[in-house]
Task: structure prediction
Amino acid sequence: MGTDSLHETAASPRYVRFGPFHIDRQRQQVYRSNSKLRLHGKAYQLLLVLIEKQGEIVAREELKQALWPADTPIDYVANITTTVGKLRQALGGSTEKPSYIETIPRKGYSFIGEAEFSDVPFPQAGWLAAAGAQSVDDASSSTPSEKADSGSRKWITPVIVGLILAGILVGAATLWVARVAPQLSH
Result:
């Protein structure tokens, strides 16, 4: 990161929260719920730059200045594209279905989530997570697709079991009709 970006980050609140993600800037750690993500280096720095300018378009040139020293001889367009891809993968999004990072064609990128900032840690219901429950904050901050995925997974097993039972009943009824019905008609 450039010195201006480092200075801004140092003056910014230590903790950031968006969706199920929490960032501790001092430790340079990103957590999803209570699980630590492996998000380091340029991907971590890129996330911070985009969050600081949430809702705005951040041009590739601005990302280049924030992530690499001015005299770094690199193909920054390819590096930024690769870094954005790694970040999307870590956050669970894609180009087609952006969760938090949207590509603005021929301009740059935009953080489309709503990040909250705090100097003190956000409350985490660790005892709820240990019990397998989801905190109210996490539930309300889930994206609609996360809620739909969670709801549809709950019904997969009962639907499959129901289809198997229906198949067994249809098979038994067919056998009964084939064997018992001719005897009853005589």
User: Anything to note?
Assistant: Residues 3-142 form a domain with the Arc Repressor Mutant, subunit A fold (CATH 1.10.10.10). Strands lie at 15-18, 21-24, 29-32, 35-36, 58-59, 101-104, 108-111, 116-118. The two ends are 91 Å apart (CA to CA). Residues 144-185 form the longest helix (42 residues).
